Each structure stands twice: as structure tokens, then as C-alpha cells.
Automatic annotation (TrEMBL):
Protein's organism: [Bacteroides] pectinophilus ATCC 43243
Region listing for Disordered, in residue ranges: 75-113
Pfam families on file: Sigma70_r3
Record's protein name: RNA polymerase sigma-70 region 3 domain-containing protein
Upper classification of the organism: Bacteria, Bacillati, Bacillota, Clostridia, Eubacteriales
Record domain RNA polymerase sigma-70 region: where: 253-296
Basic and acidic residues biased stretches: 75-89, 98-113
Gene3D superfamilies, A to Z: 1.20.120.1810, Winged helix-like DNA-binding domain superfamily/Winged helix DNA-binding domain
Domain of life, source organism: Bacteria
A single BP term in Gene Ontology: DNA-templated transcription initiation
MF terms in GO: DNA-binding transcription factor activity
Length: 306
């Protein structure tokens, strides 16, 4: 199954899980991704870890990949901190100057927290011994022979490299740890399948004792995974950017209606109706109603329809 189709299948599984107490079984997973999928223990670990990051328990798989668990805990911690920041922002002073100051302070706080989490993750990675190209080539022979332990060693080695791969995307709207986690999932997904072997003609060297042939395959695997990570990270940043742009458009629309409502209130000396405000702004009444809805009817100086 192609990676994108695999992820889409898991997204459908998440919808099912929400109606099933946030719990699913292996059978439920296979119902979504297809019963012909070949999932070994490592792949089930990846699936269980992915679902857990979304608050879903795969009941008949015990999650034992400690690296993935740390990422999950860090992601949960970051999400909790973001929610806390949102609550703090709701209580901010309405004065624009004070609000800007507090926004700046919150941004600095978030940056500091992100750096702390990244430092902790990098410290954890120090327990992983990097592999030389020759050693990786030797271990890759066992990976091609479906040795699960050897694949885990290769994956851990790529965790070290992923940090360097994603540095070029820092400062583009997505937190560094989110970039790393996305890249790690892509690496685990790719190495959990055999598709890369077909793409890189690995079967042509499986019977070879020539270390140079295996070294070449190792180098080509690096390049292949880098391309997959770049593609996945690019999509992630694009999605985040689109969400941010959509949020900015909504905020701009609400602010415009709010400012117009304040001006109309001063002119009429009272709260105005949706229709009056629409005429005042020279826009359709539906636009004003939508802005009211998006603001949860918190725009002052407008009579909220029953």
C-alpha cells in the first residue's frame, strides 16, 4: 500500500475509533487498510504509536518502542502547553498595547519550551551509537532478510540522521519537534514495508557477497528516504500554512465586522441589526451573519438574532 493511501486508511480508522470509545483492534485496522497488508511486529508498533498520538488505543498490541513513546509524551506535553497558552491568551487585557506585549511574551515562552523539548530529545539520541557506512551496509543484508531486530537498528540510525535532514525546514511555521516526529514516522513506515526494495532494485544484490554492492544500496536508501521525508515535510508545512492563512482570513473578516459595528454604534447611538450593519458596510447580510457565527456571537454593538 502506498504511504499516502496508508495514512488515509488510518485517518478513516480514527473516525471509526471515535465512535468505539477510542479503542480498536488489529482486525479493525486490517478492515481499513486491507487484509492483504503484511504487517510484522515493527509495523504494528508504528501503527500503535501513530494511533496513540491521536488518543486511540490498539488494544491487542503492546507498545514497546520506547523512542516512539518519548515522542508521544513530548507531543502530548507540547499540546497541553499550547492549550494552556490559549487559555492564558483568552484572559489577556483588551488593550492592544498590553495584548501585543503579552503575545510577544507567550511567543518567547513557547520558543523556550520548544527548545527545551528539542534539547531533551537530542540528549536521548546520544544513547544511539551511529553506524558507519560499512556497518550499515552489513546490517542492511539482514534487514533484507526480514530480520526485525536489524531493521530496528537501521531505523534508530536514521533517527540520528533525520535531525539533520529537517534542519533546512526550521522556521517555516512548524515546530522542530513536529518536523522530526513527522520524518521519523515516514522513515518507520517506509522501512516497515518492502516497497523500497523494489524501487531500489535491492533484490538484485540480495545474493551478492560484494560489500560494495551493499554499500551502494545503503547510499541509495539514504537518498530514497531523504526524498520521502522532504515530500512529507513539504506537505506538512503546506497544510499548516493553509490552515494559518484560513485562520487569518477568518480573523480579518471578524475584525472588519467588529470595527464596522463599533463605527455604526457611534453613528446610530445604539446597537445595530445585521441588516443595518450590512448596509453600513455595503456587503451582503450573509457576510455579517457569518462573521457573527465565527466569533461565537461575541461581536459587540450588534443585535444577535434569536
Amino acid at each position: 500500500m502506498e504511504q499516502q493511501l496508508f495514512i488515509e486508511a488510518l485517518e478513516n480508522l480514527k473516525i471509526f475509533a471515535k465512535s468505539n470509545g477510542d479503542k480498536v483492534t488489529k482486525a479493525d485496522v486490517l478492515d481499513c487498510i486491507g487484509h492483504d497488508a503484511e504487517l510484522d511486529d515493527a509495523k504494528w508498533q508504528m501503527v500503535a504509536g501513530y494511533l496513540k498520538t491521536n488518543g486511540i488505543e490498539l488494544t491487542d498490541v503492546k507498545l514497546t518502542d520506547h523512542t516512539f513513546e518519548r515522542q508521544i509524551e513530548e507531543a502530548d506535553k507540547r499540546q497541553a502547553e499550547k492549550e494552556l497558552n490559549k487559555e492564558e491568551q483568552k484572559d489577556e487585557d483588551s488593550d492592544s498595547g498590553e495584548s501585543d506585549k503579552k503575545d510577544s511574551e507567550n511567543d518567547a515562552k513557547t520558543d523556550a519550551q520548544e527548545k527545551q523539548l528539542l534539547d531533551m530529545y537530542l540528549e536521548d539520541l546520544k544513547s544511539i551509537a551511529p553506524l558507519s557506512r560499512t556497518t550499515q551496509a552489513v546490517i542492511l543484508q539482514d534487514v533484507c532478510d526480514k530480520d526485525v531486530e536489524s531493521r530496528g537498528v537501521i531505523i534508530n540510525n536514521y533517527f540520528l540522521q533525520v535531525v539533520e535532514w529537517v534542519k533546512a525546514y526550521a522556521g517555516k511555521g512548524v515546530a522542530m519537534m513536529d518536523l522530526i516526529q513527522e520524518a521519523n514516522v515516514i522513515v518507520m513506515d517506509e522501512l516497515g514495508r518492502r516497497d523500497w526494495m523494489k524501487r531500489l532494485d535491492a533484490f538484485d544484490v540480495m545474493d551478492s557477497d560484494d560489500i560494495n554492492a551493499w554499500t551502494d544500496l545503503s547510499e541509495r536508501l539514504d537518498a530514497y528516504l531523504i526524498d520521502r521525508v522532504k515530500e512529507g515535510i513539504g506537505k506538512l508545512i503546506e497544510e499548516q500554512t493553509d490552515e494559518k492563512m484560513a485562520g487569518n482570513k477568518i480573523l480579518a473578516k471578524v475584525n472588519a465586522v467588529n470595527d464596522a459595528a463599533e463605527a455604526a454604534h457611534k453613528e446610530y447611538g445604539r446597537k445595530v441589526t445585521v441588516e443595518e450593519l450590512a448596509q453600513f458596510m455595503h456587503v451582503p447580510a450573509e457576510d455579517v451573519s457569518e462573521a457573527l457565527r465565527l466569533s461565537a456571537n461575541r461581536i459587540e454593538n450588534v443585535v444577535v438574532p434569536d
